Amino acid sequence: MSANSTQSSVRENELLDPNNVNSACSRCKKEQSEIKSRKEYFCSQCFIRFISGKQRKQMLDEKFRVNYKKTGVDTNVLLPILFNQNLVESLSLLDILLNLLLEQNLNHHGKQGFNLVVVILYYKSSQEDINDFNLFIDLVKKNYLPLNNLKFKLFDLNLFITSNPSILRSIDVDYNNFQSYSIPKLISGESNNNNSNEIINLDTILSQISDSSTKEDLLNIIITQSVKKISLLLNCGVILLSDSMSLLAIKILSLIVRGKSYLIYNMLTNDIRTLENLQIIYPLQEILNFEIYNYFNLKQLNSAEVLNNDQRKRIRNPSIDLSVKNYFRMIENNGYSTVVSTVVKTGFKLINPVMVNPRGIKHCKVCDSVLFDDPIRWLNKITVTDCVAPENEEELSNYQKYVSLLDAQTSAGSSNKGDLHQERTQMDLCYGCLVSVGGVSKEKFVWPIYEDDSTHDAQTDFKVDSEDLLTLQEYLI
């Protein structure tokens, strides 16, 4: 990757303090300071060690260390990177991990504490983006050799939709009783419109959703579920996510706004999942966003092409995540970064919600989260569905006309569905997904629905027989 400097990002976050360029580094007391962070002045090398130390604090487990007495298979660690999303954080974490592995390799006669698998996720990247990725691989080979068992893979997120078209369903939400139904597609893998040969994939589904928050929520669900399934396919017991403290604060508030606060504990906990046997770790959880940008610039990791792709879009109607991100960016720039850490620390103190669902353990068919409460029962309890009774003849006449028109529309819709209406199956959705999919037309929105949570796994989901079929290309260094 090219090493063009992005000084504008540095100035925007006020990382360099020109009034104190002659002050000594607070750590080594020798070098000239270049960066001010957390009321301390750092030279470049001390700041790099400071950031790397924050990462290593989250990975103190014995499984990440070189152990000459260790027997069995080494720990496989997955690092997912999404094209055009949070690339600065992802590439910074990758650089930190590669330097850690390189240090272990050189200090322990070629031995490493764990095997790193980097998966690049994309769904509509151009060939130019793929070429940038190839250049990045060449850079890794040049700067981080010798390293053992370092794999880079490309994964198309469209496989989440296209790999198993037989389970694609339209989702219908009846807001009279808040019940949701899944409706089979007329033609598996194709749109319901018989005059259209458009193949249903992730890009076509997301492009038909006008609400940016709904689109963002569903894409995040696809990314989360795909990463977990990929880790199982590649036998990776640990997933490293590149979310900084700032990004975690954004996700926490966004989940609350979306009505999915019950997912905060599950998102933040580092405990091994009992069913999936996966450990999720945030190595950058104690590092602020502007500190990551500073590390990124000091290490000259930036590629002008990739960064331009990441910052190219200007959205008129920002999503929930983007609105919260702008809020925290303003807070950090005004010197109130402690608000960010307070949000994250509060999130880590939350416990798992108490199960009060009278129907037992159920899972949302869209996001796969546990339904700790019955959203239908709760919504019916707090929602007034009956209108005020007509008080005069004019209101009564208008009401009767409205009911007649509504009955006619319902009858027309039922006749257009034909026998398909009888095939719809009742399904479970969490409150957040009820809100998200409720604003999307069921004729346009499809989703892979598994009738039984216990009958599917990563192999059947992606229709693959081996990890080689999972990716377009594999780079083994």
TrEMBL record:
Major localization listed first in the record, in broad terms: cytoplasm
Signal peptide: none
Cytoplasm recorded as keyword: yes
Pathway: tRNA modification; 5-methoxycarbonylmethyl-2-thiouridine-tRNA biosynthesis
Molecular function via GO: nucleotidyltransferase activity; sulfurtransferase activity; tRNA binding
Annotated Gene Ontology cellular component terms: cytosol
Domain of life: Eukaryota
UniProtKB keywords: Cytoplasm, tRNA processing
Localization per Swiss-Prot or TrEMBL: Cytoplasm
InterPro entries (UniProt xref): CTU2, Rossmann-like_a/b/a_fold
GO BP terms: protein urmylation; tRNA wobble position uridine thiolation
Function: Plays a central role in 2-thiolation of mcm(5)S(2)U at tRNA wobble positions of tRNA(Lys), tRNA(Glu) and tRNA(Gln). May act by forming a heterodimer with NCS6 that ligates sulfur from thiocarboxylated URM1 onto the uridine of tRNAs at wobble position. Prior mcm(5) tRNA modification by the elongator complex is required for 2-thiolation. May also be involved in protein urmylation.
Protein family (similarity comment): Belongs to the CTU2/NCS2 family.
Name of the protein described by the UniProt record: Cytoplasmic tRNA 2-thiolation protein 2
Natural source organism: Ascoidea rubescens DSM 1968
Gene behind this protein: NCS2
